[in-house]
Design a protein that fits this description.
Blueprint: E1 3-8, H1 15-25, E2 30-36, H2 47-57, E3 65-71, H3 75-81, E4 86-91, H4 94-110, E5 115-120, H5 130-138, H6 152-161
Parallel strand pairs: 1-2, 1-4, 2-3, 4-5
Length: 162
């Protein structure tokens, strides 16, 4: 079984994230969408909230089991724990590549069975980030088209009350 991990903070999940998830799901038998529970960051949504938002957003993909989970610690160790041999990373711009390339090399050094693949974002999502969604949502702006329809109202309510 070909298993990959798509890690991220997903605070909140965006349509760009969803695009990467669906494209990666066609490449693997099992895709673990792994929400990073990073105590050094101050996310708007709890790790469990983010897991639930992703569960509500991701449709079933024939031929791929999509698992939504949260983790903390080293990604390379987590990937080994879930039986993944590939990390999936989405790239929006060339500026993302340098950091992600460095992380890919570090993960490979920690777990030599682990490869990283980079999926370039679809053109319509090149500008989109969770931080952009949070900023627009906090000020009551329209986030339609930025987050999956299934969770839009929940995201608006959470962001606007902050």
């Amino acid at each position: 079984m070909r298993t990959a991990v798509y890690p991220g903070s997903f605070d909140p999940i965006t349509n760009g994230h969803l695009d990467v998830i669906l494209r990666a799901a066609h490449m693997f038998d099992r895709l673990v969408v792994a929400v990073l529970n990073n105590s050094s960051k101050n996310p708007v949504f709890t790790a469990q909230d983010r897991v639930e938002l992703i569960r509500q957003s991701v449709p079933k993909v024939p031929g791929c089991e999509i698992v939504i989970d949260a983790f903390d610690g080293l990604l390379a160790n987590y990937a080994d724990m879930v039986g993944a041999t590939t990390i999936v990373k989405g790239l929006r711009a060339m500026s993302d590549f340098e950091y992600e390339f460095q992380m890919a090399l570090a993960n490979r050094q920690i777990n030599n069975k682990l490869d990283t693949i980079f999926l370039t974002t679809s053109v319509e999502y090149m500008y989109l980030s969770s931080s952009l969604v949070r900023e627009i949502g906090r000020h009551g702006g329209d986030i339609s088209g930025f987050v999956p329809d299934a969770i839009r109202q929940q995201v608006i309510e959470k962001l606007y009350q902050k």
